[in-house]
Amino acid sequence: MPIPKAELHLHIEGTLEPELAFELAARNGVELPYADTEELRKAYLFDDLQSFLDLYYGLMAVLRTEADFEDLADAYLARAAAQGVRHAEIFFDPQAHIARGVPIATVIEGLARALDRSEERHGVSTRLIMCFLRDQSAESAMETLHAARPHLDRIIGVGLDSAEVGHPPAKFKEVYEAAAALGLRLVAHAGEEGPPAYITEALDVLRVERVDHGLRCMEDPELVERLVRERVPLTLCPLSNVRLRAIDVLEEHPLARMMDAGLMCTVNSDDPAYFGGYVDDTFHAVREALGIDQERLRTLARNSFEAAFLDRDAADEALRARYLAEVEAYSFD
Ligand SMILES: [Zn+2]
């Protein structure tokens, strides 16, 4: 059994495996430009960001109904459970679906159907985080936030994803202020391909509690010192960094150096159907490539629960305490 862990950086659209893509395409009468799952599986071996994004957004065409989103989330949760995930905070991108004519209610209610059953069915507690596409306008993000208002009981927070460079966090200041006023928790992708200054801006202007990726903080020693001092969790995705060429090979990933520096690191799978592994696969990969030893794997697992949004009430705190006890009791042998 893999070590118990929380997954905090996971895009549900990035869990669409070729088999399910074909199943949903058939269900909805959507024609895919691939002969079969094997040919589609080969397309998943893209070699640059643009071919990844083309494939990623192209395949979303198969997601039409609540049942489709439910099946997508349920398939992820089953895989996550097998990877030792006990708690998942799941990102979704409503703008990508609204643009295709799929209402936000369909997306949220469909995902919620799977999430509502998850503890009972998979032993995985869940939260939902709505992400804004940063390459779209701040007005569009604000409209999306308003569209989500009838469903806020389903959503714990908001995030910011997609192409980072040229779209600094400050662009979304008002949206984040509005989200905070609605009681939503705040996270944002920053410092993946964008500069360290974007991380500072996400903290100071957007007031995020966690930074997604945050990899490039290592270029700024003062920023590292601050992140350590304020114990800001970073949701790292090492396999994603290699596939999207943020770094050349996993052996060069700064995870070990980041842990040495005292940063609060977590390890996650990002878009696992596309990036070659789910979260425990990632734990294994960093152990092999970076010599992350067992006690450091335990630290990563402990950090994941400490950084989780499990602090709303006594039930949350009890759940977190139980998960942390499972981490401490875990034996690697
Ligand atoms: Zn991401």
TrEMBL record:
Cellular component terms (Gene Ontology): cytosol
Binding annotation for substrate: 271
Binding locations of Zn(2+): 9, 11, 189, 270
Pfam families cross-referenced by the UniProt entry: A_deaminase
Enzyme class: hydrolase
Keyword Methyltransferase: no
Alphabetical list of HAMAP family matching this protein: Adenine_deaminase (MF_01962)
Protein name: Adenine deaminase
Species: Streptomyces alboniger
